[in-house]
Design goal:
The complex is a heterodimer of chains A (674) and B (418). Chain A is mostly helical and 674 residues long. Chain A is 69% helix and 1% strand. In chain A, α20 (453-484) packs antiparallel against α25, α21 (488-502) crosses α23 and α24 (563-570) runs antiparallel to α25 (575-604). Chain A starts with 21 loop residues before the first helix and ends with a helix. Classes of the chains: A mainly alpha (674), B alpha/beta (418).
């Protein structure tokens, strides 16, 4: 995380420095520290499954900790660490060229498009994306059969339920979180610096090594932190794809609490996991520090080497190759990011009963036909065979083509283009094509009648919306306080935020479920028309999200001069007005970015939500429970609906930002959480 | 909402569908035929509770002359309203029953969540302590005393469950709830295995051979149930031993065997292997009989050959488990929960559900019911078992060994990761 810029200590703020952070402190003490403290106490107790809270406190001790250090559990810890370190490294290697390409090698317009493409997959339900990997990896799936037909493998794919599957999906799930912060950092490098370096005779590679790379440092660090921490606590990926071989600490802790009913051991493991994550970050930081130190010590030697007499560098063919290579790489990475999305969309039309097993047929009850009935009894031929992919594609393309041609024909006849036709005809044709092909039928028609899905979607949006408002308000205030009024308290707050980020979700979940039940009041019965389950979701989801918002706002303000607020203060503006008229506009983009990020995080929240709220309260809660049995295609439909609604929201925000005059790069960076 | 393929998947014979539609079973206020059966449900919409026993009337002959049998059952259907949330095992009810039929017949909108083990259920209920939001839960019998001790279940209002008389008395008054004040049998089943005979070429006929296959031909391609009694059970059953033993020496030996010898060969602990079998993940799976039965349909759905797969029932001893409908403390819709449980105890709904999940639903004279409603149901040998097989089935107990069982499964999971 970027360090706070030095802010002159001339404030007009009369309250304590941490005044703006008061809501955050109250919130975190009430809903994080207190419940988690209770759980930490559990870790010194003994399991007693006859009690409601299955912990016996009569013999307190460290026995749970020593048990975790037995070889068995220790192997899982080190295995997880290995996966997380390698996966983070891989994300870095995969992501850096992409971020570099987007930041320096493409036009402004393409930059926005490419960034959008990097961001979009992460707005699809995390859970469904992970589940979707079961499709290509399955031994009886098409992909496995293609590979066998090509002779690349002799036996069916055997990847599901192995470490490889977990590794693949984990890299997939987090690579976006690596690209964005790196892009933001690279994007901030003044082009003039790189120009200057080249003007001074530096080669491309030495410009890269001594200007670009060092300046991208903060972005790389942010990327590593953003990927490594959640990887360590990942529960979903390992559970959905891992089998026994892909067991990770997050899933192990979860099974301690749920399967084994061993809360003391579970919380001991959670505490150790937090320690493990913090330690590895410290080790990582130390390594970076050491490397810099060594580099500095070795500087004279390197300089001497660099300035050795050389032949005049020939204009090499390397640069010409670099750009297309980077472009191809970026394209491949984007393709990788979109594979599960395509599969989710296709399988939401699956004619078979299961999401993950492709039936080879599209679900094609004629639009408006009674669900459950096949198309009318009239025999159909050729293009009208409604359940075959080939004719369907033809129909689809024909209708789209008409949509494209229509404005051209209009122009041919009238002599001038019709703006509305140009804008809408393809879209309308697309919708018609979907309807005519019967694609939107069946699972789509029934989506809101499916037990759990419709209600889950509504619940997801309501919950994420409320939690986001809470997060933006308390996170925004706290972020301002951290950036503008730092002091001893900010160390405490930063430590707290960090703790919130690294605490495994299942631990939060167990802690909060018990705690909210104990708090009672609005948490146990509907108050003021707010269902208590919803209130619990707002609170539970806001913890992680508000921490993220806080850090984003702080980073944003730290990068801006405090002089404006100073000036307002000097000119006699009261703190409230200075905040409203100066600070708020300055952080608005960070608030939007933080809000969007927290919205998607809340939409994806699975573990906490499933334990604190009631039945099928949100989409992922219902979906994770559905993974316990056969996943029906309507889950894919739910994910698509969720995706479309999120995208609409995103488009709206992008439009608002565009109106406010930001460049496309800035917008994308904002949307991506920079 | 029924999908084109679902009839196939329900494994319901056509004859049963014909019977159902002929009787216009679920059409409230439908034409004369079958109305008598549901008279109660039509007229009893005031909710109330007390049984208006229907059936038996002379009208029933109009329904096709086959209803003498059904008229011997209580057929009360009480109306309810609002949402009804059930927390249950995976794929445990016919989607049509929890979907459209619950809506049209009872007037409730169902939400269903699933769990893979009793421990999972108990943790969720205990953590929420009365605020879980669920109206119906389905624990396995031996876990009921523990749940009562924790105060997680509430007493039935038995006046709202008049159809309880339809349950075969041998599935009532079990040790865990002798008066059935808190629980009533949903269904019962057993544990066995299903394997791909093209890969595992040596037939498996008992647990010992199952263990050998896990370590041998099925190594790395085998799933065991994700439920602690079920992983400990086979170790004791293979020699005809008592799986409820509390003898620590025996349990130590069991742990050593399972953790050291078995765990490294296991690909997944999976309580519902049927989908993953269809995807091609396993060649050998320990499975409950109903899920194994669904696997055959799913293999066919995925384009595989069900003939390659063999189902076997555990031996020399194996399990007999019974799951029960219960109402958790703090259930938001107690009225609806009673209405649902009572509805599922009507013979036709019970049999329709049975044909989906594939477990004996505990109705009295169930063979006659099947003969009338579903005479050509496929794979009934995986639902109903002859006396000599039932004689080898043992019910579980929850005793001091339970903690040990969960610890063993836990260690197996970790060892399997190795």
């Amino acid at each position: 995380m970027t360090a706070a810029a030095h802010v002159p200590n001339k404030r007009r703020w009369r309250g304590p420095k941490w005044g703006l952070a008061i809501p955050s402190f109250i919130w975190y003490i009430l809903f994080f520290i207190a419940p988690i403290a209770i759980i930490v106490v559990y870790s010194f107790g003994t399991k007693d499954s006859s009690k409601l809270v299955p912990v016996d406190f009569s013999h307190l001790g460290f026995h749970n900790y020593s048990e975790v250090f037995s070889k068995l559990f220790f192997d899982v810890f080190s295995g997880t660490l290995k996966i997380a370190v390698f996966a983070t490294f891989l994300c870095l290697i995969i992501g850096f060229p992409v971020a570099y390409f987007i930041a320096f090698k493409v036009s402004e317009k393409w930059r926005a498009i490419l960034l959008g493409l990097v961001v979009i997959p992460s707005f699809t339900s995390f859970l469904i994306r992970t589940i979707a990997w079961r499709i290509p990896l399955s031994a009886n799936g098409e992909f496995s059969k293609w590979l066998q037909d090509l002779g690349l493998i002799s036996a069916p794919l055997d990847v599901l339920g192995t470490k490889t599957a977990v590794f693949l999906a984990i890299v997939y799930n987090y690579v976006g979180f690596m690209v964005l912060p790196m892009f933001v950092a690279l994007d901030r490098i003044e082009g003039s610096l790189r120009e200057a370096s080249k003007d001074l005779g530096a080669t491309r590679s030495s410009t890269f090594m001594s200007v670009t790379l060092p300046l991208s440092g903060p972005g790389v660090v942010a990327g590593i932190v953003l990927t490594f921490i959640p990887m360590c606590g990942d529960y979903v990926t390992a559970t959905v794809l891992g089998g026994t071989k892909g067991l990770m600490v997050g899933a192990l802790i979860d099974s301690q609490f749920r399967g084994a009913q061993n809360w003391p051991q579970g919380s001991a493991m959670a505490v150790l996991m937090i320690v493990m994550v913090l330690l590895s970050l410290v080790v990582g930081a130390a390594l970076v520090w050491l490397a810099r130190k060594l580099l500095r010590l070795g500087r004279p030697a390197i300089d001497a080497y660099r300035s050795r007499p050389r032949r005049e560098p020939k204009p090499s063919r390397f640069p010409d190759l670099l750009q297309p290579l980077l472009g191809i790489w970026t394209f491949l990475v984007l393709l990788f990011l979109f594979i599960p999305i395509f599969l989710v969309i296709r399988h939401s039309f699956n004619g078979g009963p299961s999401f993950s097993v492709w039936s080879g047929k599209y679900s094609t009850v004629w639009w408006g036909g009674a669900p459950g009935r096949t198309a009318s009894g009239i025999p159909m031929i050729g293009l009208f065979k409604f359940d075959e992919a080939g004719p369907m594609l033809v129909r689809f393309l024909v209708i789209i083509a008409i949509g494209i041609l229509l404005p051209l024909i209009w122009r041919g006849i009238k002599g001038e283009p019709n703006r509305h036709l140009g804008r809408w005809s393809v879209l309308v044709a697309f919708v018609i094509a979907i309807v005519v092909n019967g694609l939107s039928t069946d699972w789509y028609l029934s989506i809101f009648q499916q037990a759990g899905v419709g209600a889950g979607l509504r619940g997801s949006f309501l919950a994420a919306f409320g939690a986001t408002i809470i997060s933006v308000v308390i996170g925004g205030l706290c972020g301002v306080a951290l950036a503008r009024h730092p002091g001893k308290w900010s160390t405490v707050m930063m430590a707290l935020l960090f703790l919130i980020l690294v605490t495994p979700e299942i631990m939060d979940a167990i802690a909060l479920a018990g705690w909210m039940q104990r708090l009672g009041g609005p948490f146990n019965s509907d108050t003021l028309g707010i269902p208590f389950g919803m209130l619990r979701l707002w609170v539970g989801q806001s913890l992680y999200a508000s921490a993220v918002v806080t850090l984003i706002v702080r980073a944003r303000l730290a990068g801006l001069d405090g002089a404006l607020e100073e000036a307002a203060g000097d000119l006699g503006a009261p703190p409230g007005r200075a905040f409203r008229q100066i600070t708020l506009p300055l952080i608005s983009s960070a608030l939007i970015a933080g809000g969007l990020l927290s919205f998607t995080l809340c939409l994806d929240n699975t573990v906490i939500s499933s334990l604190i709220s009631g039945a099928s309260s949100t989409f992922p809660v219902a979906l994770i429970s559905a993974t316990k049995s056969e996943i029906k295609p309507f889950w894919g439909v739910g994910a698509v609906v969720l995706f479309v609604m999120t995208m609409a929201l995103l488009a709206f925000v992008a439009r608002v930002l565009k109106k406010s005059g930001s460049s496309s790069g800035e917008i994308a960076a904002t949307l991506g959480g920079g | 909402m029924t999908k084109p393929n679902e009839p196939m998947r329900m494994l319901a014979p056509d004859s049963f569908r014909a019977v159902l539609s002929r009787r216009a079973l679920f059409q409230l206020g439908g034409a004369a035929a079958g109305v008598a059966i549901l008279a109660a449900c039509g007229s009893d919409s005031s909710g109330g509770g007390a049984a208006t026993t229907a059936g038996g009337g002379a009208d029933t002959t109009a329904a096709g002359g086959t209803s003498d049998l059904l008229s011997q059952y209580s057929n009360v259907v009480n109306k309810a309203s609002g949402n009804l949330a059930m927390f249950t095992w995976g794929d445990y009810n016919d989607p049509e029953i929890v979907g459209a039929l619950a809506d049209s017949t009872l007037g409730v909108t169902m939400k269903v969540d699933y769990y893979p083990s009793n421990e999972d259920l108990i943790t969720k209920l205990a953590a929420a302590n009365g605020t879980s939001g669920y109206d119906i839960v389905v624990p396995t019998g031996p876990y009921i005393p523990q749940m009562l001790q924790k105060g997680l279940l509430q007493k039935f209002d038995k006046t709202k469950l008049p159809n309880i008389v339809n349950v075969d008395p041998q599935y009532l008054s079990r040790d865990w709830d002798p008066t059935n004040d808190y629980s009533v049998c949903k269904d019962w089943g057993t544990t066995g295995w299903i394997y791909n005979k093209t890969v595992i070429t040596t037939p498996i006929t008992n647990w010992k051979e199952f263990m050998e296959a896990t370590k041998g031909a099925g190594s790395g391609r085998t799933s065991w149930l994700d439920s602690s009694p079920n992983v400990v059970g086979p170790y004791f059953w293979q020699d005809g031993g008592d799986w409820n033993t509390e003898d620590t020496a025996l349990l130590d030996a069991c742990e050593k065997f399972l953790v050291d010898e078995i765990a490294p060969h296991i690909k997944s602990f999976d309580s519902y292997p049927s989908t993953a079998i269809a995807e091609g993940q396993y060649d050998l799976s320990m499975a409950w009989n109903g899920d194994a039965r669904q696997a055959f349909a799913r293999i066919a759905d995925a384009g595989g050959n069900p003939e390659d797969w063999v189902w076997g029932i555990g031996g020399p001893l194996t399990e007999l488990w019974m799951d029960n409908y219960c109402i958790p403390v703090g259930a938001p819709n107690v009225e609806g929960a009673h209405a649902w449980i009572n509805w599922l105890l009507t013979p036709e709904v019970s049999i329709k559900d049975l044909l989906y999940h594939g477990y004996h639903s505990g109705m009295k004279d169930i063979d006659k019911l099947m003969a009338e409603l579903a005479p050509d149901a496929p794979r009934v040998d995986m639902i109903f078992f002859p006396e000599d097989q039932v004689a080898n089935m043992r019910t579980g107990e929850v005793n001091s060994a339970q903690d040990r069982h969960t610890a063993i499964l836990d260690k197996m999971k970790v060892a399997a990761a190795g």
